[in-house]
């Protein structure tokens, strides 16, 4: 089992209104993950609001997580930034501190070309020495990776995996086949987007980068284990059971919904960074209902 | 003539590879604009790479521009940031230093809702006291303003204008009518996107936020004056003449093209901030050809 396969759990990063990370609250969340059986923790992913935190606060979050996990779960750390030099510094920080790998998204303001994204990734890999997972997340970066670019990047030393948004179930086999044809053998192909992840795993995806597992690792692990046992029917049954939560993720974004979950469960009372607002009360009540229905609260 | 009408010229912000602004090079560019007759200078717009510059460097650019313009041309300054508190600080800086107005884009990573954008803008206006122009630029922010939201924002004290991307010529009259119906009387409606700006002005737009005028103010002023003189045919002739440059703006982005222009003209030799790369040589040659054909070099 290589590092970037299996289930990677993405927690939120509790912080105050000024963007200062709360190490105590982060430890509470990480304690649910350490020893749960997840294959890695995706610290400072999009759900971990990396884009909204300063370099110093990102260091503080990683320091906290390294201490809380004590080597028992590898840490995959978001190192994306708008500027290439800043992403290099963040990746150097993560490497120097002891992260297992970095998650690099092509964060953009001016839309980027394929060649610009290639140079950005190659520079961060080369200058940091941190193994990198390509973070393909057009919903936030507005950059679309084609198989050709993924294939070019997969041959850059230090670029070790890719995380793609899971397509609609009827398209996932073709997506996987196109990527497999483009990358070297054994290059792990993983998926995010919890509501389509079960089908992506059944189709042969190597990893699930999961928001739900950041709070409820068992819910993710149960689905992953059913797939690994060859029991697609059981995986689909477990996935269908989660549909009330998936529907809320799709309606309000998984980020806003997991902040509400953590608050409703009394795990931490952090709000997402403004301008992102906490869910309005009516939506929050729907989240509370889903947690009760799923026996997750 | 209110502040945010007429021609606003948007220069690049020359900076080194580490993102340090070059005041001397910025002065060379600003000298072309002061006294040219442009109605305002759009400092630190998208073309001015505000999103890629630190707060300290944005202060340095504004300090340079205030000194170089000496009150002769009002400065409209980009104050956008991913976090609301950071945008507040940038707007407070601009207000305290002497900018005439701020240009605020809903910079996003996690996609924002209308209510989130409303709160973001209202907070920056309230906490800074800086008059704000709504910067609607879905090509970089990936947020789409509808007339309803513009109408709500136009009633917030301190929000004084809107800059929209100029639609295709056949759609501009309807776009203007929809916005006019949503905002209070006299609220200036301006447009960016140089290649459609002439038609937007002919249709009744109040302002042109122009990249080309950041380097070639006369080219923009000639079109604006023809429109103001009621000579749409002359405005269209002048606009059609610029088509070689518009085609390059559309193919490679106006930002990359004006960096190449400034370099080819010997005005400054700055490169855009990485990951954005200078134009490849073949494209650069096309830019050189267009400058020669237009007698602009």
TrEMBL record, chains A, B:
<dbReference type="InterPro" id="IPR002220">
    <property type="entry name" value="DapA-like"/>
</dbReference>
<feature type="binding site">
    <location>
        <position position="47"/>
    </location>
    <ligand>
        <name>pyruvate</name>
    </ligand>
</feature>
<dbReference type="GO" id="GO:0005829">
    <property type="term" value="C:cytosol"/>
</dbReference>
<dbReference type="GO" id="GO:0008840">
    <property type="term" value="F:4-hydroxy-tetrahydrodipicolinate synthase activity"/>
</dbReference>
<protein>
    <submittedName>
        <fullName>Dihydrodipicolinate synthase family protein</fullName>
    </submittedName>
</protein>
<feature type="active site" description="Proton donor/acceptor">
    <location>
        <position position="135"/>
    </location>
</feature>
<comment type="similarity">
    <text>Belongs to the DapA family.</text>
</comment>
<feature type="active site" description="Schiff-base intermediate with substrate">
    <location>
        <position position="163"/>
    </location>
</feature>
<dbReference type="Pfam" id="PF00701">
    <property type="entry name" value="DHDPS"/>
</dbReference>
<dbReference type="InterPro" id="IPR013785">
    <property type="entry name" value="Aldolase_TIM"/>
</dbReference>
<keyword id="KW-0456">Lyase</keyword>
């Amino acid at each position: 089992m290589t590092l970037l396969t299996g289930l990677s759990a993405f927690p939120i990063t509790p912080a105050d209104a000024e963007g200062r990370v709360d190490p105590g609250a982060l430890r509470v969340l990480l304690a649910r993950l350490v020893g749960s059986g997840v294959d890695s923790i995706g610290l400072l992913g999009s759900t971990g609001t990396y884009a909204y935190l300063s370099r110093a606060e990102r260091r503080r979050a990683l320091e906290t997580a390294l201490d809380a996990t004590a080597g028992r779960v590898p840490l995959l750390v978001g190192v994306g930034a708008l500027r290439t030099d800043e992403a290099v510094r963040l990746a150097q920080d993560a490497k120097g501190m002891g992260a297992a790998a970095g998650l690099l998204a092509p964060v953009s303001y001016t839309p980027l070309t394929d060649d610009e994204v290639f140079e950005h990734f190659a520079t961060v890999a080369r200058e940091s020495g941190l193994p990198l997972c390509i973070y393909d997340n057009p919903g936030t970066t507005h950059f679309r990776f084609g198989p050709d670019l993924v294939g070019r990047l997969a041959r850059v030393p230090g670029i070790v995996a890719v995380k793609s948004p899971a397509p609609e179930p009827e398209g996932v086999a073709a997506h996987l086949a196109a990527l497999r044809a483009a990358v070297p053998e054994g290059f792990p192909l993983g998926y995010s987007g919890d509501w389509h992840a079960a089908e992506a795993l059944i189709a042969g995806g190597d990893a699930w980068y999961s928001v739900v597992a950041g709070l409820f690792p068992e819910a993710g692990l149960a689905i992953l284990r059913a797939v690994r046992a060859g029991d697609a029917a059981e995986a689909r049954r477990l996935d269908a059971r989660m549909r009330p939560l998936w529907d809320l993720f799709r309606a309000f974004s998984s980020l806003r919904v997991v902040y509400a979950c953590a608050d409703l469960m009394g795990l931490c009372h952090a709000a997402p960074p403004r301008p992102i607002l906490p869910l309005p009360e009516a939506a929050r009540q729907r989240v509370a209902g889903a947690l009760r229905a799923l026996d997750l609260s």
